[in-house]
């Protein structure tokens, strides 16, 4: 296992993150987390909405400080309370304190805004996050499932107001869902953010037999993944995970595992280096187009590299 810096910070994170969403019990989670730690992994990602914070807290126990523990808030905590959801200050404060209790810790390494809340000004969210950082309850902030323009607005405001900015972005990314290449990934790279890629196997679809494809596009992608895996002597899951790391060093695949064997298969993707020809075949099968304006304005339209000497 190798390590990356978490966005523009000095925090060291392993290049594969472990998601805790599907943990069903302490008995299931303990061997998976132990195997992940033995492999050098140090990031455990959960959320108040997953119902797994107590499991993670019990498994980590007195090892907590050796891990980068991340959780999220936004989604409803109590559907009978109109203020028990969203990205406003009141929900952040109550949700954070509850997460800390369940995780048996007095701080979170990373606290993610779980998704975009159209009703809360981004200024309020960032100031509340900054207050939590200054209080020592969280160390770094991240944002998940939000449009590029709102994240850009937030980080620009944070820069000029000397607030804690978003160091990480958590978004879906796989061969079956490449949308982030249009705006979100370039934005994250421009701000120096890390990108935690959730559902890198498209909820398991990319590891399934070709016959499980639900449409022609899925059939083409699953066929390409299987072909490359067969040629390289690796599993389809390893090919799909290896591909998420090809386009950008900012991307950190976030994997979930229901068994130690599944985790081991996923971690083995770190040793898979896809040849350019294989990458081309995989990407051609997706039929993805980055769209306007990126494919309308060539990068060298005004300043060809041969002219500016870079």
UniProtKB/TrEMBL annotation:
InterPro entries according to UniProt: AKR, AKR_Detox_Biosynth, NAD(P)_OxRdtase_dom_sf, NADP_OxRdtase_dom
Pfam families cross-referenced by the UniProt entry: Aldo_ket_red (PF00248)
Domain of life: Bacteria
Annotated Gene3D superfamilies: NADP-dependent oxidoreductase domain
Keywords annotated in UniProt: Oxidoreductase
Phylogenetic classification of the source organism: Bacteria, Bacillati, Actinomycetota, Actinomycetes, Propionibacteriales
Span of domain NADP-dependent oxidoreductase: 16-285
Protein's recorded name: Aldo/keto reductase
């Amino acid at each position: 296992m190798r390590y990356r810096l978490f966005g523009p910070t000095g925090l060291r994170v392993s290049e594969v993150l472990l998601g805790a969403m599907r943990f069903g019990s302490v008995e299931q989670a303990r061997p998976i987390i132990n195997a992940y730690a033995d492999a050098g992994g140090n990031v455990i990602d959960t959320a108040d909405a997953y119902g797994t914070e107590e499991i993670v807290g019990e498994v980590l126990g007195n090892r907590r400080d050796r891990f980068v523990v991340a959780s999220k808030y936004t989604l409803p905590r109590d559907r009978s309370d109109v203020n028990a959801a969203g990205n406003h200050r009141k929900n952040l404060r109550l949700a954070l304190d509850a997460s800390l209790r369940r995780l048996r810790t007095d701080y979170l390494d990373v606290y993610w805004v779980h998704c975009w809340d159209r009703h809360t000004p981004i200024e309020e969210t960032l100031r509340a996050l900054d207050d939590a950082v200054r209080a020592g309850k969280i160390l770094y902030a991240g944002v998940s499932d939000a449009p590029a323009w709102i994240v850009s607005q937030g980080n620009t405001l944070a820069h000029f107001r000397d607030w804690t900015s978003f160091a990480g972005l958590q978004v879906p990314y796989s061969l079956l869902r490449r949308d982030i290449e249009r705006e979100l990934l370039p934005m994250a790279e421009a701000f120096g953010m890390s990108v935690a890629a959730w559902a890198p196997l498209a909820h398991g679809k990319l590891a399934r037999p070709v016959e499980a494809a639900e449409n022609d596009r899925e059939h083409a992608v699953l066929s390409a993944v299987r072909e490359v895996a067969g040629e390289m002597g690796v599993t389809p899951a390893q090919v799909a995970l290896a591909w998420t790391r090809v386009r950008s060093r900012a991307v950190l695949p976030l994997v979930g595992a229901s068994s130690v064997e599944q985790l081991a298969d996923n971690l083995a993707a770190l040793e898979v280096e896809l040849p350019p020809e294989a990458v081309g075949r995989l990407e051609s099968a997706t039929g993805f187009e980055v769209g306007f304006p990126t494919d309308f304005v060539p990068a060298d339209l005004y300043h060809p590299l041969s002219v500016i000497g870079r």
